[in-house]
Amino acid sequence: MQTLLHRTFRQVKRILPETVSNLVRNTITAFLTPVMFSYHSGHFRSSFHMKALDKSGNALPWYTFPCIDILVRRDFRDKHILEFGGGQSSIWWGNHAADVVSFEGNKEWFDYIKKQMPANVELHYVHDQNAAICLKDVQSILVEKGRKTFDVIIIDGLWRYELIPLCVSLLSEDGVIICDNSEGYEFRQGFDTSGMQRVDYYGYASGAIMRTCTSLFFRTNTFVFDNKHRLITNGFN
By CB neighbour count within 10 A (0-12 exposed, 13-18 middle, 19+ buried), where does 98 fall? Predict the structure, then answer.
């Protein structure tokens, strides 16, 4: 597509005066760029299906596209994932990581998405009437599982602010915590005393008309930004 556009515009430049050809180029760029972005990112398809999808219809996390663009180029095949707030992201992580433990507090949504999960995703329902009950359910299940740390922890549901201390304690030394909709929920205040660093990825998300933010919280030796960690070159198209 890009090569075809370049070839076409070269022909236009030969025929038209520079001022006119520039006007044509700028007009096409202004209108075509958002259309191409919407198609290639999956935003167009997601808007009609009301779920986070890539351009081929595969599940995407409902994070901002700049954050997804980073994640799809990382290799998570040997990583263990903990997620608060299940959905399309659970499917995506299940297809990219070793295993996923996900918690969901909406029973109707839990029943709907449970049958869609890959075999390596454990989806658990927890009561979320208040933070204390929710955290008690979560900790009880994690103790039963016996896993002490996770490489990637996602806070995208339940009692987000109240989950922060637990997530920090469960994070592997080189892991990362992903917080979606991080412009709210007092995420930044919640991590103030954690000693962790933060990178914010502002941008659009699947099927959304307003910009939002997904943030990564991590220690200095996180594998996500380690030059020695294997990158996937084909990435997010």
Answer: middle
Residues 6+ apart with CB under 8 A from 125: 103, 104, 105, 107, 110
Residue owning tokens 């933060």: 198
pLDDT tens-digit map of 89-143: 999 999 999 999 999 999 999 999 999 999 999 999 999 999 999 999 999 999 9
Domain boundaries, the chain: 2-41, 59-225
Q: Which of 72, 54, 76, 34 is nearest to 209 (CA)?
A: 34
pTM of the model: 0.86
> Which amino acid, 43?
H
Residue found under tokens 């076409």: 8
Tell me phi and psi for residue 90, to 5 degrees: -60, -40
Residue that the structure tokens 């075509």 belong to: 32
Say which CATH class 59-225 falls into: alpha beta
Q: Comparing C-alpha atoms, which of 164, 148, 180 is closest to residue 62?
A: 180
* Phi, psi values for residue 98, rounded to 5°: -65, -50
- Rounded CA separation 133/126 (Å): 8
